[in-house]
């Protein structure tokens, strides 16, 4: 065992000596691997960062959350003209489901109000605010924290009290550093009292950030907009109890809503049951495809780097033919010569990979600084992948030159070298 370790150590020392004696050639060789590893790990890091930021935007909603509406999150087999005839979900359907649906943790009725709404406080206006009109249960479905105040309660929600909860950015635009609590502003052309301010969320990659939103009781908005189709986009948001089978829950939900709407057996649903878990799976699928495309493209760079190392190793074998002959004549085994050149190729490739990882790390820091809320992440797994891939490229690129060197006849090698 000690003999093998000594042979490996001597082979390693020979490889390091050969690399340090030809610095320019070493630099040019590892440049190809550096670019290849940089390309691959940059793609993996970018896609991972995108996936993390998108899922972070969805993290406020439980993965089991269901959104009932006349629109579908993804593609549908139902023709567009037929989907456009679907009725909106109604406040009455929300009330009936709330009373009759089993295994229900929370349910909320919400109105999607298209276009930005202007909020005005005295002479200051905050335009383009995404005002969500919801029932009081929405606070139990979506996890967001309040920096000040509270969410509106059931009596305020049912009566449509003129109260409002502001996002961090909206509150700052209207009131600056002053607390907005208890102050009156105008929304939908009517007065509303601020009763809460949400914690700062930062940039969101799915939908609008909470910072640019506001919430009012749905019945307050209904008095202004009514329920005319196309004016607002009603939806019922449901959260099943923990541990409930989602498929069974959805089957009961569909059955009850079909019964309410008088849909006959054999007729298709005139509504869509959208699952948040389905959206997460869709995001995973998209990012997976981006990874594959990026890896294929980046793989060409790595292939060029591998050919570069193989070429340099063949040159190295030819230059050191005389030395190989002398080593073999003095008793060096084929394994020693083989390991010597393999170590050289692997060390060369790993150094190139580490340099590539270093550049990805630098780029991720700079990109995170310039993109604000978007955080580029270089995970330990990606670093491990980069190191292992570079070592494998060195091994594969160096195996044929190393074998050819180990099989040289000592007498012919010395004569050729002379």
Distance between the termini: 36 Å
Helix content: 55-70%
Low-confidence runs of at least 5 consecutive residues: none
Tell me the number of helical segments per DSSP (H or I, 4 or more residues long).
Answer: 14
Number of structural units classed as domains? 2
Strand content: 15-25%
Class by SSE composition: alpha+beta
Radius of gyration based on Cα positions: 33 Å
Q: How many individual β-strands?
A: 11
Shape: elongated
Instruction: Report the mean per-residue pLDDT as an integer.
Output: 78
The biggest beta sheet is recorded as: 11 strands, mixed
Order of helices and strands: HHEHHEEEHEHEHEEEHEHEHHHHH
Domain ABC3 transporter permease C-terminal: 296-410
Protein name: ABC transporter permease
InterPro entries: ABC3_permease_C, MacB_PCD, Macrolide_Exporter_MacB
Transmembrane segments: 27-47, 292-315, 336-363, 383-405
What does this structure look like?
The structure is a single chain. It is built from 14 helices and eleven strands. Helix 2 crosses helix 12 (334-370), helix 10 crosses helix 12 (334-370) and helix 11 runs antiparallel to helix 14 (410-417). Strands 1, 2, 3, 4, 5, 6, 7, 8, 9, 10 and 11 form an eleven-stranded mixed sheet that branches. It folds into two domains: 7-57 and 282-417, no CATH class; 87-270, no CATH class. 57% of the residues lie in helices and 16% in strands. It has helices spanning 2-21, 23-58, 80-83, 91-100, 138-141, 154-159, 168-175, 218-225, 246-261, 276-319, 321-329, 334-370, 380-406, 410-417, and strands at 66-69, 104-112, 117-121, 124-134, 146-149, 163-166, 184-187, 190-198, 213-217, 233-240, 272-275. The protein is of the alpha+beta class and 418 residues long. The chain crosses the membrane at residues 27-47, 292-315, 336-363, 383-405.
